[in-house]
Specification:
10 strands; alpha+beta; three-stranded antiparallel sheet; Cytochrome p450
């Protein structure tokens, strides 16, 4: 419930969840809100916005059953399917959990159920396991670059970033070659959270359109396993030795496929956007490719692919000394925290040499930290390495995005993610040797 005092104090702020100006400039919104208070209730939907680094870490590191991830992907929209009553709403939440969007998927699980099913995914996405696929990633990115290198221009989002990550996760999972192009088109761009279709935005299983295909993949692996990640998933067992339901295995496979390409695609596109405006940085990374991982960490800090995630207070609690009643949706502003001047010196500057460059919170922390972070970092590194190796100079297309002092970028209308809708570059191919 928003008090009149809170409403008056923060009504001068735009609505984070619908204002297109905030979608274009989320860091400006986080900076303004943080300057007033790093933990503040916004005036439109009653969620508590946590924008300070220390306060975000307080929430993410909190153990126990104080915060639930049931609303992790959609926050306060739509509102909870029940009216919270009392100092502990755990029983109410359990009774209505299946009515909450994305509730069928790992990202919204809590407690033991979350730990058990997350273990299946983390065992698949180990860094050493993924490194075995690095040669394929290099071949894939070179093949994609071959498709546009002769033109001297491309739309990075559709022709490179999205294609790289979608084909890469498809290969890891063992999706048949003949299905990959269709799935690339089917998965498409992330749905709008502002004006998107209700099935993607509100359903308990927004990846339902992939169900039939992934059910068949899992059935095949159960009968005739191979060496791919879906075969490993199909062979998974709970700690007590019991066999997971095939329906749950299909859900996990769909989640890995959807999440495995989405976040990294945004990271690659943003990395290219930053590089294309900085010739000096391009030259440095071509000469020092071992610094590309640090460059990507700074991209994650500066303009991470996930702006915010959400928690639901199941019990009365406090964050940063601010009272948070049970039933409150807490918006954890990862980008806000990663640009907090109390933790990062001169956060508005892009600096791959900064102290604590790996302190960014782009992949969250704690029990729900992104299990696909090793995959994202690997794919991002290979994609940038190969693009820099195959080009001598990359620049933003002024035809599409305007001059350097007046760039124009269009972002997908989503309040949770930082999604360039398109990114047009022009470049000089590297000399062939």
């Amino acid at each position: 419930m928003v008090t009149e005092e809170e409403r008056a104090r923060y009504m001068d702020q735009p609505d984070f969840y619908s204002d297109l100006g905030v979608i274009a400039d989320p860091k400006g919104y986080f900076d303004r809100l943080r300057s007033k208070c790093p933990v503040a209730r916004e005036a439109y939907h009653g969620s508590v916005m946590v924008t300070g680094y220390d306060a975000v870490m307080e929430v993410l590191s909190r153990k126990g059953d104080v915060f639930s991830s049931a609303v992790s992907t959609i926050g306060p929209i739509p509102p909870l399917p029940f009216e919270p009553v009392g100092e502990d709403i755990s029983e109410q939440l359990d009774a209505h959990r299946e009515e909450i969007p994305w509730s069928a998927h790992l990202v919204c699980f809590d407690g033991k159920k979350h730990a058990e099913h997350r273990a299946f995914v983390t065992r698949l996405l180990t860094y050493s396991r993924l490194r075995q696929n690095e040669d394929y990633l290099k071949s894939l990115t070179d093949q994609l670059i071959d498709g546009f290198i002769g033109k001297g221009r491309c739309n990075v989002v559709s022709e490179y970033a999205h294609a790289t990550t979608t084909y890469a996760i498809a290969d890891l999972l063992g999706i048949p070659q003949e299905d990959r192009a269709a799935l690339l088109e089917l998965i498409g761009a992330p749905p709008s959270q502002v004006d998107g279709d209700a099935a993607h935005k509100l359903g308990a299983d927004p990846l339902i359109f992939l169900k039939e295909r992934f059910d068949s993949y899992i059935r095949k692996r159960l009968q005739d396993p191979g060496t791919d990640l879906m075969s490993e998933l199909a062979a998974s067992r709970y700690k007590d030795g019991s066999v997971p339901n095939p329906e749950m295995l299909s859900l996990l496979a769909r989640f890995v496929y959807g999440a495995g390409q989405d976040t990294t695609s945004r990271l690659i596109a943003m990395a290219v956007r930053i590089l294309a405006d900085d010739a000096g940085l391009q030259a440095r990374l071509r000469n020092e490719p071992h610094r590309i991982p640090d460059f990507l960490e700074e991209v994650l800090r500066y303009e991470g692919p996930v702006k915010v995630i959400y928690r639901l207070a199941q019990k009365n609690t406090t964050i940063g000394g601010v009272d948070v009643p049970a039933g409150t949706v807490v918006t954890i502003c990862l980008t806000g925290a990663s640009n907090d001047p109390a933790h990062f010196r001169d956060p508005a500057a892009f600096d791959i040499d900064r102290v604590g460059v790996r302190d960014n919170l782009a992949f969250s922390r704690g029990a729900h930290a992104c299990p696909g972070a090793p995959l994202a970092r690997l794919e991002g590194r290979v994609a940038i390495e190969r693009l820099l190796a195959r080009t001598a100079d990359i620049r933003i297309s002024e035809e599409h995005h305007g001059p350097a002092d007046a760039r124009r970028y269009r972002y997908e209308p989503t309040y949770s993610f930082r999604n360039l809708a398109e990114l047009h570059i022009v470049f000089v191919p590297a000399a062939q040797t």
